[in-house]
Amino acid sequence: MLSSDRIIVSTMNYVPGFEVEQVLGIAVGITVRSRGIGGRFLAGLRSIVGGEISEFVENAEKARRTAMERMVSHALSMGANAVLQVYFDSNELSEFMDEIIAYGTAVKLVNKS
Question: Any idea what the CATH number is for the domain that residue 11 is in?
Answer without folding.
Answer: 3.30.110.70
